[in-house]
Design goal:
By secondary structure, the protein is of the alpha/beta class. It has eleven helices and twelve strands. The protein has one domain (25-322): Alpha-Beta Barrel (TIM Barrel), CATH 3.20.20. It is 39% helix and 18% strand.
Length: 323
Amino acid sequence: MAFPIQRLRRLRQHEAFRRMVRETSLAPSDFIYPLFIVEGRDRREEISSMPGQFRLSIDHLVKEASEIAALGISAVILFGIPDRKDDRGSSGFDPNGIVQRAVKAVKDHVPGLMVVTDVCIDEYTDHGHCGIVKDGRILNDETLDCLRAMARTHAQAGADMVAPSDMMDGRVAAIRAELDQAGFSELPIMAYAAKFASCFYAPFRDAAFSSPQFGDRQSYQMDPANRREALREIALDVEEGADIVMVKPALPYLDIIAAARAQVLLPVAAYQVSGEYSMIKAAANAGWLDESRAMMESLLSIKRAGADLILTYFAKDAARLLR
C-alpha cells in the first residue's frame, strides 16, 4: 500500500465539512460577564490595566445589562467597590450596600438576565485580605460569619446565584445553611472551588482596589503546583452543597478543568481572569496577535478542557462574533 488509507485532511478541505465535524463549540449562553460597580452617578471609568473594561455606577450598569442580555449572554457577576472600608468588610454585607443595590436595579430593569454575586470581603476591607485579620493571621472561622451575612443580603436583594471566592474552609456549607435558614433553599451556589494563588489577578486588583496591604494570599488560595489538592477542594465543595464548581484561573490550569470535569457530575465553570484578558489585549495592541482569533482560540480551549461555563471579560466581544 503506497499511502495510508486514512487521510485526515479530507474533512478539513471545506468550511462546511469543518463545521460538521467540529467537536467543541461556543455560544453566548456559555459566558458570564464580570462587572465592577462603583458608587455615585454617571460614572464610567475605563480601567487602565484592562482596556475596554470599566468601573460603572448603577445607572450605567443598567444600560450595560440591557446590552449584555440582548447579545444572548445569560448572566453577569457583580464586584462591588465601596466608598468605605473597614477591617471586617462590613459594607459588603450592608443590606443597602453597593452590590445589593446593583442587584435590585438589574433585576428591576433587565429581569431576564441572571445576576451572580461575588461573596468575599477583600474588596471591602481596609487591609485587602479575603478574611478577618488578627495579629497578621487570616482567621478562617470568624470570616464565615461575614460570608454568611453577605450571601444572605445578596439573596434578599434578588441575586440569582451567589459565588463565594474567599477560599475559607467550610464556607460553602456555612453559606448553604444560612441561605436555607433564611428561606432561600432554591438559590444555587457557584463555588470558587480551586482558586489558585496567581499573579494573573493583578489587573483585577487594580480595577477593584483590592490588593493586600501586607503579605499575600498564599495561606488561603491554592499553591499552583498542586493538582491533587485541587481535586480535594472540589470534592469538599460538592460535599458541602455547591451546585457549580469553578476553577480559577483558566488557561494556566486547563489540566485542573479537565480533571474536574472527569471527577464531578456538577457543571464546571472556569474564570478567564483579568491577567489572561489583559495579556491578549496588550499583545493585540502591539500588533503581535490577532485579537479576535486569540480570544476565540483561548475560549475554545477552556471549553474543550471541560468547562460548561466561562467567566470572561471577552463575553460581549465573543458573543458578537458568535451571533
